[in-house]
Specification:
- The structure is a single chain.
- The protein has a domain at 2-154 and 183-208 and 251-262: NAD(P)-binding Rossmann-like Domain (Rossmann fold, 3-Layer(aba) Sandwich), CATH 3.40.50.720.
- The chain is built from 9 helices and 12 strands.
- The protein has helices at 11-19, 38-48, 64-67, 69-89, 122-137, 157-167, 184-194, 214-224, 264-279; strands at residues 2-6, 24-28, 52-55, 93-99, 141-146, 149-150, 170-174, 178-179, 182-183, 201-204, 212-213, 230-234.
- A 6-stranded parallel sheet has the order 2-1-3-4-5-10, with helices on one face. The chain has a two-stranded parallel sheet with strand order 6-9. It has a two-stranded parallel sheet with strand order 7-12.
- Helix 2 (38-48) packs parallel to helix 4 (69-89) and helix 8 crosses helix 9.
- The termini are far apart.
């Protein structure tokens, strides 16, 4: 399969390239291709002749989207629309990556693929609009919702925790927001499995289990790092942010084929080993 990968410099894009063993990938960063430019997207599709466009590009600044909604909608809605349209014109399929934030968090049980989205923030609304455009413009689509993605080279919460532990013996971590921590490597493997099936549709691919709070994640991570850093649970009200976020957005899948990622704790354990290898063992 020939794959045109956008967002190649991001966390998921890097892992897709690292783990791919079967497909030819044309990997484009934002500098190579601005997906908001329809003419540029059409030219890239003509040049690379993909069987599948895999969109891992996104505007991910959740709080900035509140003050600059146009930037969020250009990156998360117009861009995917352009990719879906150009792919359809070329007879190619598309896989678009979306987010747990399309849900409002009012449930107390994990969200599956057929639960109704109700986005709260401009970021979430832009992501849901991108999903909708992809579905409307290309019938040969996969929409993959995921959550709380991290990998060693990226900017993410677990990595931030590591550097906080360098400076502090105690850290405050929010305990009343719950989601599905997801290793970018595990997500990439699941996506590479999914595109082999030809079973188009919407999928939830996220760290398995009953979910975790940020406090749960930090506790697990520091245990894996063998640190004695004290993790103190605090409510999200202690860290007010411009954008509203779902308090509960744990994901599960009921879609066939049922592709399950490893438990989120396994992803954190692997991440801890990678972080130690990259930056050093703080427990020494």
């Amino acid at each position: 399969m020939r794959i045109l990968l956008t967002g190649a410099a991001g966390q998921l894009g890097r892992q897709i390239q690292a783990l791919n063993q079967s497909h030819g990938i044309a990997a484009l960063t934002h500098q190579d291709l601005d997906i908001a430019d329809l003419a540029g997207v059409r030219e890239a599709v003509r040049a690379h002749k993909p069987d599948l466009v895999l969109n891992a590009a996104a505007f991910n600044d959740v709080d900035r989207a509140e003050s600059d909604p146009d930037a969020a909608f250009v990156g998360n809605s117009a861009g995917p629309r352009n990719l879906a349209l150009a792919a359809a014109e070329a007879g190619a399929a598309i896989l678009h990556v979306s987010t747990d934030y399309v849900f409002d968090g009012r449930k107390s049980t994990p969200y599956h693929e057929y639960d109704q989205p109700a986005p709260l923030s401009n970021y979430a609304k832009s992501k849901f609009a991108g999903e909708t455009a992809v579905k409307e413009l290309n019938p040969r689509h996969y929409v993959v919702r995921t959550a709380w993605v991290y990998e060693p080279k990226g900017n993410n919460f677990p990595k931030t925790l590591y550097f906080l532990a360098l400076k502090h013996k105690e850290v405050k971590v929010v305990s009343d927001v719950k989601g599905s921590p997801t290793s970018a490597a595990h997500l990439a493997r699941a996506i590479l499995t999914l595109i082999e099936t030809g079973a188009f549709g919407t999928y939830h691919l996220a760290g398995a289990g009953e979910g975790a709070s940020w406090f749960d994640l930090a506790t697990c991570f520091f245990r894996e790092l063998a640190l004695d850093t004290v993790v103190r649970p605090v409510p999200s009200s202690e860290f007010p942010r411009p954008a509203p976020r779902p308090r509960y957005s744990v994901l599960r899948t009921i879609q066939t084929p049922r592709i399950l990622l490893p438990p989120w704790q396994e992803g954190i354990a692997e991440f801890a080993r990678d972080i130690k290898a990259q930056f050093g063992d703080l427990a020494k």
